[in-house]
Write a structure and sequence with these properties.
Layout lengths: L4 E5 L5 E3 L3 E7 L12 E12 L7 E7 L2 E9 L2 E5 L4 E4 L4 E5 L4 E7 L1 H6 L1 E11 L10 E5 L6 E3 L5 E7 L1 E2 L2 E2 L8 E8 L3 E6 L5 E8 L1 E4 L3 E4 L2 E5 L5 E6 L3 E8 L7 E3 L2 E3 L2 H13 L7
Antiparallel strand pairs: 1-22, 2-3, 3-4, 4-11, 5-10, 6-9, 6-11, 7-8, 7-10, 9-12, 13-14, 14-17, 15-16, 17-24, 18-23, 19-22, 19-24, 20-21, 20-23, 25-26
Length: 289
């Protein structure tokens, strides 16, 4: 049975994160991410933006997180990550960073040194994935997933390329390690084509379309930047594109727990948020300084 489209949502107006990450928000833990899209909390899309060469470090300086994971995909350009747990990494086109904030970490996200030198187009996506209550205070973890290590499935008609970043699609597994079942799938239509996928019954499912027009199950079409929420019943999704298009499938097992968020902290109660703020203010927040 096909998963039916429940609703479609447009992005908020563009805003700047730090001084180098222009994004548009599709949802947050204050709206769709609070219940409808569990375990997904927030999604920001940085549509293609041009930056001239510079020696200035652009991006977001050191800031805290607790209680969830950040997943950053670079489609064009380059970013670099550094955190107080001792992790450092650079990612370029097709690469993914999967950071588990857990009990607390400070990190920075900047344009990579090589990208600053050359300038060019930056295009990226950042997704926040919730952690269940018994994992919110887990040790921080960092995964760099290079494009070469992410499996690619070429569509039967040759018009699509599907990358499995985490979870499974058919018998293909993605390299990312997750705490709860999360199937994160990156699909690019290179031209007019069709693609059918089968996903787990009962899981939260959304399609984030960032480029082009995509028709779902022959009835619902979205053109440009938008997110479609599908019902949890059913397992099959039929997609068709009239030309080049790019989208992400967000598919995961719901975490049936309260979501209480404040800025960079997402916990299960107001008391836990207050504790996070106190820990951060007292300097005992991160595992290393």
């Amino acid at each position: 049975m096909s998963k039916k489209v429940v609703s479609s949502h447009q992005p908020r107006p563009p805003h700047m994160v730090g001084d180098g990450l222009p994004v548009r928000n599709l949802f947050s833990y204050n709206d769709l991410g609070k219940s409808q899209l569990s375990p997904f909390l927030m999604l920001d899309y940085g549509s293609p933006s041009e930056f001239p060469p510079t020696e200035k470090k652009l991006g977001v300086g050191m800031h805290p997180h607790r209680g969830f994971e950040t997943v950053t995909l670079v489609l064009q350009g380059g970013l670099q990550h550094k955190d107080t747990a001792g992790n450092f990494g650079e990612i370029g086109p097709g690469d993914v960073q999967w950071m588990t904030a857990g009990k607390g970490v400070l990190h920075e996200e900047l344009h990579s040194e090589s990208f600053r030198k050359t300038g060019g187009t930056l295009q990226m996506v950042q997704l926040w994935v919730n952690l269940p209550a018994d994992k919110k205070m887990t040790e921080p973890r960092y995964q760099t997933l290079h494009a070469a290590d992410i499996p690619v499935i070429v569509g039967a008609d040759g018009a699509s390329k599907t990358r499995v970043i985490s979870g499974k699609l058919g018998d293909v597994s993605g390299p990312a390690k997750t705490f709860t079942p999360v199937n994160l799938i990156d699909i690019e239509f290179t031209g007019k084509g069709r693609l059918s996928v089968v996903l787990p019954e009962g899981y939260t499912t959304a399609l984030f379309v960032m480029e082009g027009a995509v028709t779902v199950n022959g009835t619902d079409t979205t053109d440009g930047i938008s997110i479609m929420i599908l019902e949890r019943n059913g397992s099959k999704i039929e997609m068709a594109a009239d030309g080049p298009a790019r989208l992400l499938i967000l598919n995961g097992k719901q975490i049936d727990e309260p979501v209480v968020g404040y800025g960079p902290f997402v916990m299960n109660s107001s008391e836990e948020i207050q504790q996070a703020m106190q820990d951060f203010s007292s300097g005992t927040f991160s595992t290393a300084q």
